[in-house]
Amino acid sequence: MASSGAxxxxxxxxxxxxxxxxxxxxxxxxxxxxxxxxxxxxxLESYTTSLKSTVLNYRYENGRRYHGFxxxxxxxxxxxxxxxxxxxxxxxxIQTLRLGGELHLAxxxxxxxxxxxxxxxxGIWAIDMGDKYPSAEILGNDISxxxxxxxxxxxxxxxxxxEDEWVYSTKFDYIHSRYLACSIRDWSKLMRQCFKYxxxxxxxxxxxxxTRFYTTSGGEYNKDTTIGQWxxxxxxxxxxxxxxPDPGPQIETWVKDAGFTNVHSRTLPFPVGTWPKDKTLxxxxxxxxxxxxxxxxxxxxxxxxxAWGWKPEEVxxxxxxxxxxxxxxxxxxxxxxxxxxxxxxxxxxx
Length: 350
What we know:
- This protein has nine helices and nine strands.
- By secondary structure, it is an alpha/beta fold.
- The protein has one domain (51-343): Rossmann fold (3-Layer(aba) Sandwich), CATH 3.40.50.150.
- The strands form two sheets. A seven-stranded mixed beta sheet has the order 5-4-3-6-7-9-8, sandwiched between helices. A two-stranded antiparallel sheet has the order 1-2.
């Protein structure tokens, strides 16, 4: 993908992995749309103050704010500023809408006791779960401390790199994650840690995407459009840094390989735009279009400048071109959202 005067990559992009991506059709409308222990004393306070300063020492690049915790070589390529937080909260609404108002699909019962939310982001899912399940202790972890301080009493957050070795002393009834696409280097290790730290008989659930767009409704979208080339370069750029951009269609295999059973999988199309005939999908598509339009720079800047050597000004030109294409109702394109939930065998031995 090239913008005016844009530098071309000096390295050949890694080959994309081959796997089947189900294309799920959406019918289009016929008309075009115009507590700490006080016994620790001052030593603990001094230590935690030092840790907090490290965690909150954010990194700023090209006018956007990124995480500061364990930033060697960049652990996460998207911002953590207010614009990105707003986008993530909007996506929470989109996803909940697409799941018929449900926060999860795994049958965790009415009284779960311990729930872990991996990569909790703004914490909005954990907070909603805390309200829904007062019996549960909800723990959310993330590499960025961007979660609110006013939360239900049964919800807590911690700053952690979920790809490190976990050290929890008590296992969980349910482990949940979503939108970890473009952020995890070793998915197999993540699955093994989930298997180790969920109770026998407990559930895990992964909700995620891939970066592939497609059309099944006679749309003008194709891989040669600006959007198609942009999506490919985002994915290939992340692969240069060892990050997997397309976990969605591979999750079911990883879950099974980790030892989980009773595996359930759903593939749901997410339209982009208001072209679907179905009322709910039209609403999903409208919000999905907005979340792309509002933060294309946030999704693009760090990857393009780090992986491909583009200048920030060139990225802005590209994003202007992308917005024009995203707003074209004739594109009629979509991407897939995958939900996989599974159970740890009751007789499992770690």
